[in-house]
Amino acid sequence: MGFFRKLCCVLLLFLSGNINALQIGDKAPNFIAQSTKGNINFHEWSENKWTILFSHPGDFTPICTTELAELAFLQPEFEKRQTKIITLSADNVNDHIEWVSHIDKYKNLIRTDKKGTITTGLERPDLDYPILEDKNLKIATAFGMYHPKAEPSEGVFGDANKSTIRSVFIIDPDKTIQTILSYPKHIGRNFNEIIRIIDALQLARKYDVTTPGNWEKGEQVVVPTHVPSEDIKEIYNVDFFTTHQDYLRTIDDPTKKISKSKKLESKSINKME
Predict the structure, then answer these.
(1) Hey, which bits of 155-206 come out as E strands?
(2) pLDDT per residue over 73-125, tens digit each?
(3) Over pLDDT 70: what percentage of the chain?
(4) What is the average pLDDT value for the chain, to the nearest integer?
(5) What is the pTM of this model?
(6) Residue 35 half-sphere exposure, CB side, CA atoms within 13 Å?
(7) By the 8 A CB rule, do 85 and 71 touch?
(8) Cα–Cα distance measured from residue 176 to residue 205, given in angstroms and rounded to the nearest whole number
(9) Contact 159/51 with Cβ under 8 angstroms?
(10) Which residue segments constitute the domains of the chain, with CATH numbers given?
(11) Cα–Cα dist 166/61, whole Å
(12) Catalytic: 9?
């Protein structure tokens, strides 16, 4: 009877589509697909770097255009973090290529003031990341980017298709999924939050720390519970730490100490010269 009950549970999970749902900690599925940058083998293309895969409901749609424009404008920020970005839409490559000019035009419009000066101080590069073709929804299915029971919807040109939701997969250099975000079709993504997550993930991976709620780059971080309090100063090379509870200890951002040490070292070298 116990075996029969377990078998029924497995069947129910399979029929509901949840058995294939990716979770944080899973390996990102590999795929080969056409894109605006040619044929791409995802795992080879990622080059053992941090990678973010974005999905979009469709080409020539208003919210997607604003999102890809924002992503294009922020390309230098992702490059500084050694993070590759790639996007996906169920439309074909020819449509993607035509759409790129619309995206760049909107990007250049929203990022200038009345005098035509860039408002954020960043460069204004044209869109230079791949947009994947996924007409048969193989990638969308592998990553769970649309509900398996979703009904076809009418595209902007009258084409009946199942469009994806606004998914975000942040994947580490080992091809492991570290973050999954899903947005409804009518709500644009917050790219400042996505950059904040990348900063937190990279900091955690490099220094074995965790980040508190609403953490921003440069703020204090939390020492993991597996590190004994008596070892904190030695392990993190800090003069002090704050104990809020025996399980909640904070230290200054470890990158600040390194930056300060480099500056002092540089000053010493200059004096010697």
Answers:
(1) 160-161, 166-171, 177-183
(2) 999 999 999 999 999 998 999 999 999 999 999 988 776 654 544 444 445 67
(3) 75
(4) 83
(5) 0.81
(6) 20
(7) yes
(8) 13
(9) no
(10) 20-201 (3.40.30.10), 208-272 (no CATH)
(11) 13
(12) no
Q: Which of 66-80, 142-156, 209-223, 224-238 has the lowest mean pLDDT?
A: 142-156
Pick from 247, 218, 219, 250: nearest CA to 236: 250
Is residue 167 within 8 Å of 143, Cβ to Cβ?
yes
Catalytic-labelled residue, pool 64, 74, 127, 131: 64
Mind listing the pLDDT tens digit for each residue in 224-237?
999 999 999 999 99
As a whole number of angstroms, the distance between CA 172 and CA 52 comes to 9
At CA 255, angle to CA 249 and CA 259, rounded to 5? 135
State residue 127 phi and psi, 5-degree precision: -60, 120
Q: Which two tokens mark 194? A: 């996505």
Number of continuous H segments (helices) and E segments (strands) in the chain? 9, 12
With cut-offs at 50, 70 and 90, classify the pLDDT of residue 11.
Answer: very low
The two tokens of residue 97 are: 């290529």
